[in-house]
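Q&A log
Question type: sequence-to-structure
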Amino acid sequence: MVANGVRGKLSRFTLFVAAGAVAATLASVPAVFSQGTSTIKIDGSSTVFPITEAMAEEFQAANRGVNVTVGISGTGGGFEKFCNGETDISNASRPIKSSEMEACKAAGIEYMELPVAYDALTVVVNPRNSWASSLTVEELKAMWEPAAQGKITNWNQVR
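Response status: OK
Response body:
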């Protein structure tokens, strides 16, 4: 997202980054630098942090005199800061919620969501496991849903 001091310089256009579109976002901001902005503030998802940090370093190397700060306050914390105008880019590992949309709207902050990646889980079964050649989504849910925490301690409770 491009907000805060940068926001006014870009006709109040802000950019919300879903899952780390930092490279595309930072590449689209050069006009800001000609207007004297020297810091870009990014915050949000810890999942997206490593990508953002790497891209921020690359961007700073290519744009001497520009400082890019990257914080990790979580997706919700990042949206809160973004909608308060405290950050320029918000990393998120989920879509923006209705309540967050309203907070941004109330603050006059416009944004564009840019989904750039999707998380995935891979379930691997040890080849020495003789009973589980496959697992169903229902079985996985039984193991990992919040209600199962601390209750599922053995495979025979799943199948």
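Response note: Confidence is low (pLDDT under 50) at residues 1-23.
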